[in-house]
Write a structure and sequence with these properties.
Layout lengths: L9 E2 L5 E4 L5 E9 L2 E6 L8 E8 L7 E14 L6 E8 L3 H13 L10
Antiparallel strand pairs: 1-3, 2-3, 2-5, 3-4, 4-7, 5-6, 6-7
């Protein structure tokens, strides 16, 4: 049963691609992330209650990209405000440390930080 989230999520104004971890096909795009879950935006509805193998392909600045493999359970899925798109919420099973680093990096990148006062 779906429960209200207890961890703050970070909305993403631009999307990172999410792939099927088994066949490598594009499933959708990250809509937001938290330490223990994510929201996926897809062109097809996803089965609620099903387990998914997901793969995030994170581009590197100048080096190779980082692949993050995730095992996730779909908690909910409903139609997005954009026609022919669906939002799906996932709970992650034991996310790897790389996923936590990604969440921290995204939170830092998309947050406002106070600047030190000038003299």
């Amino acid at each position: 049963m779906y429960k209200k989230r207890r961890i703050e999520r970070q909305d993403l104004p631009c999307f990172l691609k999410v792939f099927n971890g088994v066949n490598g096909r594009l499933i959708g795009y990250l809509g937001n992330v938290s330490e223990s879950g994510l929201m996926l935006i897809s062109s097809l509805p996803l089965m609620v209650g099903a387990d998914y193998d997901l793969r995030l392909k994170i581009p590197g600045d100048e080096g190779p990209r980082m692949d993050i493999k995730l095992k996730a359970n779909c908690l909910w899925c409903h139609e997005d405000v954009t026609p022919r798109h669906f939002d799906a919420g996932f709970s992650l099973h034991a996310p790897p440390p790389e996923y936590g680093q990604l969440v921290s990096a995204l939170q830092h990148y998309f947050s406002f930080h106070s600047m030190p006062e000038s003299a």
